[in-house]
Amino acid sequence: MSSDDFIVTPWHVEGEIDYDKLIKRFGTEKISNQLLDRIEKITGELHFMLRRGIFFSHRDMNFILNEYEKGNKFFLYTGRGPSGHTHIGHLVPWVFAKWLQDKFGTNMYFQLTDDEKFYSKQNLSLEDTKKFALENALDFIALGFKPEKTKIIIDSDNINTLYPIAAKVAKKINFSNTKAVFGFSNETNIGMIFYTAMQSAPCFIEDKPVLIPLGVDQDPHFRLTRDVAPKIGKLKPALIHNIMIPALQGPGGKMSASDENGTVYTTDTPEIVKKKIIKYAFSGGRPDIEEHRNKGGNPDIDVSFQYLRIFFEPDDNKLKQIYEDYKSGKMLTGELKSILIEKINGFLSVHQEKREKAKDQLDKFLLDNS
Amino acid sequence: MSSDDFIVTPWHVEGEIDYDKLIKRFGTEKISNQLLDRIEKITGELHFMLRRGIFFSHRDMNFILNEYEKGNKFFLYTGRGPSGHTHIGHLVPWVFAKWLQDKFGTNMYFQLTDDEKFYSKQNLSLEDTKKFALENALDFIALGFKPEKTKIIIDSDNINTLYPIAAKVAKKINFSNTKAVFGFSNETNIGMIFYTAMQSAPCFIEDKPVLIPLGVDQDPHFRLTRDVAPKIGKLKPALIHNIMIPALQGPGGKMSASDENGTVYTTDTPEIVKKKIIKYAFSGGRPDIEEHRNKGGNPDIDVSFQYLRIFFEPDDNKLKQIYEDYKSGKMLTGELKSILIEKINGFLSVHQEKREKAKDQLDKFLLDNS
User: Fold this and answer.
1) Contact residues on chain B for A119, CB-CB shorter than 8 A
2) What does the pLDDT look like over B222-278, one tens digit per residue?
3) CATH for A257-357?
4) What pTM does this model have?
5) How far is residue A16's CA from residue A132's CA, in Å, rounded to a whole number?
6) Where do you find CATH 3.40.50.620 in chain B?
7) pLDDT for position A203
8) What's the sign of the alpha-carbon dihedral A134, A140, A144, A149?
9) Which of B129, B162, B171 to mutate to test the interface with A (most CBs of A within 10 A)?
């Protein structure tokens, strides 16, 4: 598979993604320095995920900021398909959404699409995906969202809120549209075909502009939503896209909750984290120590370094030092992995405590089912 | 259009229907004399709609009766697509369902598919179809169903009950299936494509056999349901089909709620009923009185006679007398129409009173929305 040859859909990511090509393919806009300056002027600082291009692409961010400056505040919406336990890759857009909520003082909706994962996974029942939804909700709450400004939507629980909105969207989307955008075929089940309307629904839950921070693989859903919005008298949702988080075994796919060895779960113990990183994290190092010391490693393909860059080392100076030390050969792969293990376990020990407390907060966050 | 050339789908009925051919085309079973005897043995009498072949076809009626005789009671389910006010044609399967409820002592579910009519009618909003649903519910209640054994489902109101069931059905139906059964195309909207799963859902609302009395045009939905049922560990629904009720202007279509002149509404005044029947009811009479007296009329194509046969004259002897008198030329078209007008207005004066009282009973009948 050449670097040209990659696939990005909401249900399948394969190959080494060229993000500049993806921007052209999807028709989104690259986040420019000018846009970064504009965000920084409002927020006072740039989140490191913006500085480092983890969020790299958008649709209509300038519209969102124009409206904000006119006093017309947007709301935030993101979500998760609950096909398994939460892993650290899932947290990327959520942590960023939390930052946006804090900086812009906005309402936030988090959709757990138990129906989608039921439709798309042969071996999962609706009861399974609902169970995962409630598990995943704890990780979301643990990140510190404001309960008075944040609602968690579970599709099958909140269907009475979602369905009337989804129906209005569904009437404006035909099978051809879903074939073009998702590559559906005659063999696709009718739940999957309808589902995109369910993912559109929270965009219109408030009569305000909406900004959606999300993995770029989810963009196709909202391309449809953006086409439909004016036809039902609504505003187009704005998007800000993050890159796919690599699996432990390296690039060529996104981290998947169903591959246990490729994934660090938020509930993993320090020992398991250590074992997974040491055993599975794809290394940019040389085959032996002598060669590594002489020629240096390649942090750009090293998964441990990428995890630090994407999530676990917010300090640019520290990250730069690690980059240089690893590239020069001064830092060995084992040392780099030790840094990451310590960072992940530090994060998880706090996260797991908050996650326990989230069990008592769950009811407060769940959207009222009436 | 030859007599071979007719169309029967849930959304389009056209041409003169040959019901024997339709039975072959749909793969249903004709109601045999043996089956009628069996029903009569249990119920003590045959409803005139059974005696006259208004209900003419079925699927798995013998299974339903076998289970009933073993003490495993079925429940009843029928419904209506609320695209307008109720007309007298709608009442046919409901009146028959009421008879079944009385004779077999069963529970009954009545589904008002406001979402379906929203998806299928370009000019109707979900608010419009919901309004019609509540109107139609009054006519249903007015027929005297037992409140303690009868629940009315409105799709968009009871979606939290229906969606988890519909989702399980939807996972087992693909786009090809809906193309084959409904003739859907790439231009069909995804709400319509999904919708059949919503119409399946009430079949599985109780864990018992279900019998569905319904217009034969609705059979395709349940062909899909019957294919899916064993795949989700459920019993196949049984069906009993009525013929299409002709429009006032005559055969070649079913009575449609959206064609005002072709339709007698349950809320029409006696004067309007009289005017509609005199002006629009297709006549099997001769062009002038002398010819009619000599050669006689044709009751088999006369809509007034058909309405008496289908609904308004339960007495077989009286109906036979009218048939013979009209056929011989003794009875003129005006006299036949007078008989029908009197029958309809007699029925409607009682119905409209009960319909008014139904407004206070509505809450008791609506399925609990939780």
Assistant:
1) 167, 170-171
2) 999 999 999 999 999 999 999 999 889 876 656 665 667 778 999 999 999 999 999
3) 1.10.240.10
4) 0.93
5) 29
6) 7-247
7) 98
8) negative
9) B171
